[in-house]
Amino acid sequence: MTQVFKFGGASIRDAAAIRHLGDLLARFPARPLIVVVSAMGKTTDALEALLAAARGDDPADYRERLETLRREHLATVEALFGASAGPVAQRVEALITELDRRHRRHARRERPFHYDQTVCFGELLSTTIVAAWLEDTGLASEWRDARELIVTDGTHQAANVNWSATAERVRGLDLDDGRLRVTQGFIGATPEGDATTLGREGSDYSAAILAHCLAAEAVTIWKDVPGLFNADPRRVDNAVQLETISYGEAIALAWHGAKVIHPKTLAPLQQRAIPLKVRSFQDLAASGSTIGDDARRDGEVPALMLCEAQTLLEVRPRDFAFMDEARQHDILGRLVAAGLHAGLIDAGATRLSLCLDSHPERLEPLVASLSSNYAVTRRDDLTLLTVRHGDDALLRALGEGRDCLAERRNADTAQRLFPASQCPATWHVPT
Predict the structure, then answer these.
(1) What domain range is 183 assigned to?
(2) CA 175-181-182 angle, 5° bins
(3) In this predicted model, what pLDDT tens digit does every residue of 221-274 receive, in sequence order?
(4) CA 62/CA 78 separation, integer angstroms
(5) With contact defined as beta carbons under 8 Å apart, do 251 and 263 qualify?
(6) For an engineered disulfide with 226, which of 230, 273, 286, 417 has Cβ 3.0 to 4.6 Å away?
(7) 76 and 14 in contact (C-beta within 8 Å)?
(8) Does residue 427 form part of some domain?
(9) Whole-angstrom distance, CA of residue 105 vs CA of residue 251
(10) Radius of gyration (Cα) for the chain, nearest Å?
């Protein structure tokens, strides 16, 4: 059965990392195998800065950024292929030239459309180099353009998959010739051929889409950590690795801010009971973690999620009326239109409290809109703490010495909002 491997930007950040990727894949000779690859390192960030420059008024800044992108990718090609770099370098040069052409063509179009037509080149560049390197090392490979496989609508920067059209194209792949397939994460295209991107965690989602359409045996996401944890190990000094969790538990953790796997990645896998494995590309001996149907170990240890740079809005009717369903519908509709997600929503008789990410470009217009019809109070620089499967003693310990500004709790999840100034750089989960 087909396996799908996904590698993020950290795993191909430079020539040494790409060599390591080739060595890793050589240890998995079973076919069919589809390898989904992100852009190299921080390339997407560089492309977003290039996009801003293309839409700005400083041509010299744009040319400098484009040349830096070109130079960095060609340096990787040179480091990998040496004297035989010519053919791969030519393909990279052609992609950079096409990227430049698209910026010139679309710089006056609406930004989401322009974004998708150009930022997709990060994945096109990386997979061109990776596929050529694998072939050069003796791993028979074929480069495939994800824009010809994943069909979406025209919702740019957050495209919706046309599942029937995508399944028809993916199932048309001939995977029985012993070659692995290298394709891009994050990108697709409309039926008319306009590039689209799949939004947050789009590369993981790409792997899930392909796996779903092929009824794959498993998806493996290769990271620079040994697996999934009950908390961010960079922020919690006694974080515990989770060997197995269920799809439902993983979705709940992700919804509340855990850097686990985005729910949209899990849904197509859950529909076909395809397990998702998280493994370390740095340590193949590490056991990794598995997300699947088995829920028996869910909640064995409490999970802790921290969302920082939060803003609390308390919205009240100006006429002191109740915060009824009609007013909640109006407020939440404006929230959706602003493209913001509320990590915590708490309703009272005369107010609605919303905890939001502090994205100025989205938050400020929302506050202005609400203030025209409601009384709005605001508090910034907050931290939202979410605890899954925690008991009262744990919650008391985590809240000790901190002012709780908002709270929400149900049978298995508790959320509390604290001033960021009262929160430590490193947390500890009492056991």
Answers:
(1) 3-223
(2) 165
(3) 999 999 999 999 999 999 999 999 999 999 999 889 888 788 899 999 999 999
(4) 24
(5) yes
(6) 286
(7) yes
(8) no
(9) 40
(10) 23
Buried b / exposed e over 32-63, threshold 16 CB at 10 Å, is bbbbbbbbbbebbebbebbbebbbeeeeeebe
Residues near 354 by Cβ (< 8 Å), separated by ≥ 6? 312, 313, 315, 331, 335, 342, 344, 345
Question: Is a pLDDT exceeding 80 seen at residue 422?
Answer: yes
Q: Identify whether 272 is part of a domain.
A: no
Instruction: Report, as an integer, the average pLDDT of 291-304.
Output: 95
Residues 307 and 209 in one domain: no
Comparing CA positions, the residue from 133, 157, 50 lying closest to residue 96 is 50
Any idea what DSSP says for residue 422? Answer: G
150-169 residue pLDDT tens? 999 999 999 999 999 999 99
pLDDT of 404 above 90: yes
CB atoms under 10 Å from CB of 404, counted, come to 12
Quick one: pLDDT at residue 425? 94
pLDDT given at position 297: 95
From 223, 239, 266, give the residue that closes a domain.
Answer: 223
Instruction: Classify residue 32 by its DSSP letter.
Output: S
- Model pLDDT, residue 359: 85
Same domain, 216 and 308: no
Residue 6, SS3 per DSSP: strand
Cα separation of the two ends of the chain? 42
Provide the strand spans (E) within 8-140: 33-37
CB under 8 Å to 39, separation ≥6 — which residues? 9, 47, 122, 123, 125, 126, 186
Report whether the peptide linkage leading into residue 302 is cis, meaning its omega lies within 30 degrees of zero.
no
pLDDT in tens, 163-189: 999 999 999 999 999 999 999 999 999
- pLDDT higher than 90, residue 339: no
- CA 324/CA 204 separation, integer angstroms: 39
- Among the candidates 223, 242, 258, a domain finishes at 223
Both structure tokens of 250: 């993983």
The domain spanning residue 394 has which CATH number? 3.30.2130.10
> Is the domain of 197 the same as that of 311?
no
Q: Six-digit token pair at 286? A: 């590490």
Give 107-113 contacts, CB < 8 A, sequence gap 24+.
107/54, 107/55, 110/156, 111/51, 111/55, 112/156, 112/157, 113/156, 113/194
Report how many domains make up the chain. 2
